[in-house]
Amino acid sequence: MVRPVHRRPGQSRKAQYSLFAAYVIAVTGAVAGLLLAILSVVDPIGFAQLRVVSQEITAPVARVSRSVIGSISGIDDTVGAYVSAGSQNRRLRSELADTRRELVATSSLQEENRQLKALLKLQETDKTALANGYLLTSTSTSSKRIALLSIGRKLGVTAGQPVRAADGLIGRVLSSGPSVSQVLLLTDVDNIVPVRRARDGLPALAYGRGNGDLDIRTLNIANNPFKPGDILVTSGTGGLYPPNIPVAIVVRRQDDGALARPLADPGKVDAVSVLRPYTPDNIEAQAAPAPPPAAPAGATP
Amino acid sequence: MNNRAAPRLGEPASLWRMRIVPVATVMFASALPLMLPLVANSPVLPPLGLLFFLCWQLLRTEMWPVWIGLPLGLWDDLFSGQPIGTAVGLWTLASIAIHYSSQRIYWRGFLHDWAIAALLIAIIQSLAALIVHPGAATGRVLGLVVPQIIISALLVPLFMRLTGKFDNFRLKRR
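The joint structure predicted for all components is written out below.
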């Protein structure tokens, strides 16, 4: 480009001072900004509220563009269904997805039965959703995996609530505005979910990799018991995610655990449900209405 | 009487348009990813706001004061999902770097501009990812943003052309 002319402002004191002041402002602001960034990494909840306004601005546009583009892809699906092979493929795929869902449900139910018989009576949480919505958009340029949920505080969504789709866990609510809320996806690098293998209840932890996959690590490092095809469900340990929500399927073994793929792809799910966090007071609150006179004493796990 | 539709000789371009167009393009490009119905599993989109920000500064180094990264970076932070303050700091440091390089390299060419923009994008995106995930392994975090950096570096010429188009519109008389 053209050689800049006014780089050295000459003899004018005013021009010299204003150039100097601009640099002072810039350097001070840059340092303050980086300090603020480090602070907001340490305390993400407090600063997440600042973003609510900007999301309330973009959410209506995202709603419109989602409905437009969603209908376009709907047309694509309809055309594809006219081809016989395509329709058969679609039907088989949906059957496969249904079967897998049933398989997950039965295997986790078996495990649940075994635990209920063998161990103490664990309270079964209410599976009904607090609210239902859909994922509008996400932070596609950042390495942070945050999606925007179409419902917010008006429908009872608050920070810390788990979010799931029909196929499995999606993530948890990070912060909520009046009509939209942020969801930290399962695959974010900072999201750790306590899971267990649906087949035998082997406990493990699922770490997000940030690129759509999960790292599964067992709590005892002695041997690597995972096989491709193992299905992992939430264990309820730690008290945030209710137990027995399908999470991921193991793709291959690794040195220190396994690589797994989430069962619910946030880019493809239609509707998601916001659940109550699995905390002792919530469990009691849901257990109490069923037997109104006999309040179970000491039911807290 | 003058014909109001035709530009008069020596008439300057609209001052408001000269000032608003660059800021508006950067702000819109920063907010655009949150308006698309795309739920991504990894950072797939290039940082559109940053690309426009760098291209404007490479095209018109003296158009903005060196602290312009403070307000524009804050706007980008509100939409990008990064912790507030990341782009405030990194964008401002980038514009200081561009001002410095324009003192060092007289008569920058297209390849210079491309190289400077690609280098700054690589540094900014890597540092931003490292700031977001302080606890994670460095190599893994950098591996996340490498595809995005490559795509962005390849898109720099396109954004240069777009910025040039906007610049023509900005300086058009009437």
